[in-house]
Amino acid sequence: MKPANELTTPELVSFLKAANQAYRSGSPIIDDATYDHVYLAELHKRDPLNPFLNRVEPEGDFGSEKVRHERPMLSTEKAYTTKDMANFVRRVEGIAQELGIITSSIQYRITPKLDGMAGNYSKNNLVARGNGEVGNNVTHVFNHGVQAIGGANTGLGEIVLLSSAWENGLSEKFSHPRNVIVGLVGADKINEDVFEALQAGHVHFTPYSELPGQLVTAKDLTGPQLNDICDQLETGCGYPTDGSVIEVVNDQLKEAMGHTSHHYRWQIAWKRVGEMVTSTVTGVYWQTGRTGRVTPILKIDRVWLSGAWIENVTGHHAGNVQNLNIGRGCIVNVVRSGEVIPKLCGVVKKGESALLPRTCPSCDNELIREREFLICANTESCQAQIANRLGHFFSTIGNIDLFGEKTIDTLLTHGVDELPKIYEQTDKDFQSMGFGPKQAQNLVREINRSLTDPIEDWRFLAGFGIRHLGKGDSRRLLSSYPLLELPSVTAEQIQALPSFGQLKASRIASEIRSTWPLIESMINLGFNLTGIPNVAKSDNPIGGLNIVFTGKMENPRKKLEEQALMLGATPQSSVSKNTDILVVGQNVGSKKLEAARKHNTRILEEAAYLEMITSTPHEKHEGPSTNSLKKEAKTASEDQFKLFA
Ligand SMILES: NC(=O)c1ccc[n+]([C@@H]2O[C@H](COP(=O)([O-])OP(=O)(O)OC[C@H]3O[C@@H](n4cnc5c(N)ncnc54)[C@H](O)[C@@H]3O)[C@@H](O)[C@H]2O)c1
Ligand SMILES: [Zn+2]
């Protein structure tokens, strides 16, 4: 593809149309930042009245029934800078003044901007946005297992995947969580991993009205606190997001502001981009990761960006490098927005053509192409995969230093390529590999420290990099079964735990068994595994339960969720029929309470909840039984919440 500024306007529009179609069908040809800030921005600059910019970008049709929306489903205007936001506020205040509304009294509501597929759920049909006027009937997704949060006919919302499902498995298969959703809506045959997520209740239709939100004033929108507020909402909602949505609360004001053919004038999306710089690609390098995925790293001429010198930029994946045709000599934009690794954001000037490797840069094995990704399947003897697996263990257990990339490379060149072997090395062995006497001594000291300093058993288990057994799932698994019993735990037993579907459970069970000889030999070295107490469900008031925390809490919500996880419960972001407890703080929204009442979910105040979990010792066979505690725990009366509703 040519850089945006070298395209004629008709070429630019047809490229935008093609990129949009690819994006809506679940296989984007460029990343969002490049689409927004390079190609779309170029058209805005050149031809702001172009029809492409003034209507909703259409979705594919998924082959389903077409339904006319009662009211058009529009897109959102986007603010990328404080100046954009100040302009929005000025516009709102201008209309408010005409209506005689005191501008300082104007309230705005911020909600996380969900990154899935938007739809309207009414008259028992879920209709995806389509072209904004006519949508696609996708009600069938509920038969596939999509959970309707808040019940039926809840209005505008989004089909979304839980972030946890993305992080614990699906990210290994798909390049973006939205691709999972598009695939599920349009596919004749659902991908087995997606099927799994559906079965485990991890795909939701979440109405925007159920989202956590915050009321703010104009001062918050234009001040530095806006990013903190949005960060908190975005990370706290439990779903992938691509910004936050800000809207005017006052109905009279909304009515007066109205809409364009593209967006509502009373609503804006806050999408942050970091500082952007331009540099030249001096080479494209490929790296093989722990799971065999081979990813591109772009070497660029050193540039200063957001307080650091940048020389390497991630090229995301093979598909991206190929579609943007990135080779040596290309001039590229690079952005850094909060995250550590700077990102590529579009090609400014073409250089050499992209060259994808045919073989693994580490072991020379022929690579396999899986969608956008290149994979080295030589898991047994690919040195890069081995090195990354060893590195993963050390960084996950977190109580050992000095075993970084360089040390591991030296160990591998001397044939020390397994964890137990590393733990056998003596001072003399290390010296014979070329480490200095002091270094060798320090390495031995670290090995001893890692054996004696306590490690939580779930951290230790997650260190083995078993697929689907990240830290969260290791913790959930070990809260029901002790580490030493794992080889005899069956797939059915794992599946019976919350958030483990059938396929995932059987993969975990079989991989635990195949990895067990290694895990066992490591345990036998005498690690100080503190483990979380073995909380059998019957002895723990919240083991195995689904809990939603809502409202302003005395304790940080993140802490409460962590603690619930440790006790074997699953924190959820919204109330559904499988929620067991709704824990409420101050200023709880009426929707969550209504949903809890509808589903007969137990409602507990924060204090009562804490009393319930802390007054039970979490060791087995000690203390009062859960049942007696459940009776004692105060259930908050409905009247108390009417105050906040
Ligand atoms: N990579 C690509 O090639 C490519 C192509 C096309 C579009 N895109 C991306 O898609 C974006 C535009 O797509 P769009 O028009 O579908 O969506 P949008 O980004 O304009 O968002 C508008 C939608 O957000 C939804 N939304 C989500 N959370 C909400 C909330 N809390 N409150 C209210 N509404 C909420 C609404 O349904 C609304 O329709 C671009 O910014 C770009 O990043 C990427
Ligand atoms: Zn390899």
UniProtKB/TrEMBL annotation:
It holds the Pfam family OB_DNA_ligase. Its cofactor is Mg(2+); Mn(2+). Residues 537-603 form the BRCT domain. It is an enzyme of class 6 (ligase). The active site is at K113. SMART domains: LIGANc. NAD(+) binds at D32, A33, T34, Y35, D36, S75, T76, R129, E158, K271. Belongs to the NAD-dependent DNA ligase family. LigA subfamily. This is DNA ligase.
